[in-house]
């Protein structure tokens, strides 16, 4: 069933579990994630990032994933990840996304609040939810223009009051696209943010976080973890292995059917970490 973040995150923020948000890049991995969610009987968030939108177009991405969400036996939120342009956000909402992230993290606080507010007004009128970001979560590779800025608790509190966002992504030492869990989470900063911000908190860059730190984070007001790199590793590494083992084969579906169980297994591992 299709839901938005407001159906999922407030309860998670008040409890000792979090909801995984998996970045998916095609139908096969999205289906594997939904199958994992159904197997463990947990809600899930399917997220499309900028790479997916640039490659497919936001309308095609919506058409590809909406059927999986609406037909699922568990709640599924279809979420547009980091997006910097309002026109793409509005196209996504029209196409059926139930949630969007307007990323104003590279803007001044005032402009971030003002532009997020406009997005929130439209999204809420359409029954969709909105995520924002305060501070700036850096990337280990790619997106070199993205700054590294720790979240200010005071700025996050003002953003929560004025922007209309339903949840806020924060920067507390987490890093996008790490291939090993090597980042250091500033739990003191997280506690100060949580004390000031009443809306649910979001952590991006989950693949770079140690399991023991995820255990601590899920017991805080962090309600949503964005997960991408470890899923891409499960797909890419196993797909490469099978293709190298059978160089005479070339059918896409043949190889995808072999690799997808590893994607599902990695998704289940993350569900168990966050439960």
TrEMBL record:
<dbReference type="GO" id="GO:0005975">
    <property type="term" value="P:carbohydrate metabolic process"/>
</dbReference>
<feature type="binding site">
    <location>
        <position position="176"/>
    </location>
    <ligand>
        <name>Zn(2+) 1</name>
    </ligand>
</feature>
<keyword id="KW-0479">Metal-binding</keyword>
<dbReference type="GO" id="GO:0008270">
    <property type="term" value="F:zinc ion binding"/>
</dbReference>
<feature type="binding site">
    <location>
        <position position="103"/>
    </location>
    <ligand>
        <name>Zn(2+) 2</name>
    </ligand>
</feature>
<dbReference type="InterPro" id="IPR013785">
    <property type="entry name" value="Aldolase_TIM"/>
</dbReference>
<dbReference type="InterPro" id="IPR000771">
    <property type="entry name" value="FBA_II"/>
</dbReference>
<dbReference type="GO" id="GO:0016832">
    <property type="term" value="F:aldehyde-lyase activity"/>
</dbReference>
<keyword id="KW-0862">Zinc</keyword>
<dbReference type="Pfam" id="PF01116">
    <property type="entry name" value="F_bP_aldolase"/>
</dbReference>
<feature type="binding site">
    <location>
        <position position="204"/>
    </location>
    <ligand>
        <name>Zn(2+) 1</name>
    </ligand>
</feature>
<feature type="binding site">
    <location>
        <position position="133"/>
    </location>
    <ligand>
        <name>Zn(2+) 2</name>
    </ligand>
</feature>
<feature type="active site" description="Proton donor">
    <location>
        <position position="81"/>
    </location>
</feature>
<feature type="binding site">
    <location>
        <position position="82"/>
    </location>
    <ligand>
        <name>Zn(2+) 1</name>
    </ligand>
</feature>
<dbReference type="InterPro" id="IPR050246">
    <property type="entry name" value="Class_II_FBP_aldolase"/>
</dbReference>
<protein>
    <submittedName>
        <fullName>Class II fructose-bisphosphate aldolase family protein</fullName>
    </submittedName>
</protein>
